[in-house]
Amino acid sequence: MSKISTSREVRTKLGKIKGVSENGVNTFLGVPYASHLGNDERFQQARPIEPWSGVLDAKKSGPISPQLSSRLSRVMGDFMLPHDENSLTLDIWCPDIGQKEIPVLFWIHGGAFISGAGSLEWYRGTLFAKHQNVIVIGVNYRLGALGFLCHPDISSGNIGIEDQMLALEWVYSNIEYFGGDRKNITLMGQSAGAISVYALLANKRASKMVSNAILQSGRYDNFEELEVAYKKTERFADIAGVEVKALKTLSLDEILNVQTKFAKTQAKFASSAIPFLPVIDQHTIRSEVHEDFLEGARGKNIILGFTRDEMHAWFSGIDEIEKASLEQIELVFKREFTNDWNIILDECRKRRPGASAMEIISMGMNISNFQGHTVNLAKRLSSVDTNTWLYRFDWSSPESIFGACHCIELPFIFGTASQWNPPMLSGGRAKEIAGLSKIIQETWGAFAREGNPNNSNLPNWPKIRENDFNKICWNNFIEVTNSI
Q1: What is the spatial distance between Cα 379 and Cα 467, in angstroms, rounded to a whole number?
Q2: Which of 34, 192, 400, 478 counts the highest number of beta carbons within 10 A?
Q3: CA-to-CA distance for 382 and 388, rounded, in angstroms?
Q4: What does the alpha-carbon distance between residue 288 and residue 242 come to, in Å, rounded to a whole number?
């Protein structure tokens, strides 16, 4: 079907915005939610955007946060887009304006807090908005050293999380002008984005603006103590050859170069550690972050899940992992599970007879990371006043070495598989992918609209209940699950 494009103008509290209307979907791209960040404001919290005069042209996405290639580019593919420190913008896709009280889906991308953007074509919200009658919003926030360095001489830390909070506040204050319902905002995040959703629900300022949350493949203990964050920043400055306070004088290329060198110092065998993490600063994130999350989640609706082979994204096809010795395998399990390492290793072997070294390491690391964190969080949520649905995503292409790996569900959710076509889908049948994508979109759409994922395309998907939990889980192994 050919595109029929016309301009579409919206008046907000801050000023007029002109976007594009195409075949029933209104798109407003590169909408700023924070003021321009000059060099003097590098590593500092942004300010809410000031009102503007005239009409803001919102027909093109803004630059993405400065970054180098993703460490998962061999799995997801790569992209080359303009980047700039002044990148704090939103992309908004909504059904034809004229409706009122449309549910809102606020998307926080992953990328280990060092890569990605809400404005990538991968996450384009056109199909989701059109078919599910939901407003989809992608947010760009500061990444890597620019978003997460923390030290008294340069930054209070959590700048990237604060950016997300400013964006959420912009949406809460202005989405009604796009037909949106600010009383029905669903946060959705994957990987680092899921950690971000966790942090936002744990923050009273943010959680009061949210009705529902979807947390995909997160690691929910990934918060840094202040002293550790200070030492990391000092190490970063040492690599740069300057004092901490002088980091803001470096060029952008110098910062990205140092960031790469720093990340290598954090690397371990068979690990996917994140070099920069949100910090327990007692302001944005408190020491009681896990208790705060449960309080923020109280009364809300939650979807929580992971993929079957998360760690294949890092390990599959990597020679040193594929050829790991028995001693190396045991060292990984000892590192991850300490006293229970041999029990978990034996169980992994029982569940996957004849598995390769990579498959055993991948399974164990999933249990100690994404799967384990998700199962533990589901168990905690089952004991409080929330409606929580737990899933595992199992689909994989028979021709792909990556299995049901980290990020594989994303093109299904956004319906972008045919345009994106990442390596992790290589060999998958287009008709099968499109059919499953339709089911997942309708499930996530039902959840955003109604707070319940059940719909006519699914068998009944029951909520997690505390009394049932021990029947389905043992040592973070899923015995029985609602697999997609």
Answers
A1: 10
A2: 192
A3: 7
A4: 35
Question: In this predicted structure, what is the pLDDT of residue 318?
Answer: 97
Domains contained in the chain, CATH given: 5-307 (3.40.50.1820)
| Strand ranges inside 134-190, DSSP E | 135-139, 180-190
pTM, to two decimals? 0.95
**DSSP β-bridge partners for residue 482:** none
β-bridge partners, 279: 224
Cβ atoms of residues 360 and 329 within 8 Å: yes
Query: In 202-251, which ranges are continuous DSSP H helix?
Result: 204-207, 226-240
68-114 per-position pLDDT tens digit: 988 899 999 998 899 999 999 999 999 987 789 999 999 999 999 99
State phi, psi for 106 to the nearest 5 degrees.
Answer: -105, 110
Burial code (b: 16+ CB inside 10 Å, e: under 16) for 442-477 equals bbbbbbbbebbbbbeeeeebebbeeeebeebbeebb
**What is the maximum span of the chain, computed from C-alpha positions, in angstroms?**
67
What tens digit of pLDDT does each residue of 281-301 get? 999 999 999 999 999 999 999
> Active-site residue numbers?
191
> Mean pLDDT over residues 461-469, rounded?
79
Query: Would you say 30 and 84 are in contact if contact means Cβ atoms under 8 Å apart?
Result: no
Q: Tell me how far apart the alpha carbons of residues 109 and 160 are, in angstroms, rounded to a whole number.
A: 12
436, 471, 476 from 358: Cα distances, Å:
28, 29, 20
Distances in Å between the alpha carbon of 302 and those of 116, 333, 452, 464? Answer: 24, 31, 9, 10
3-state SS, 124-142, equals CCHHHHHHHCCEEEEECCC
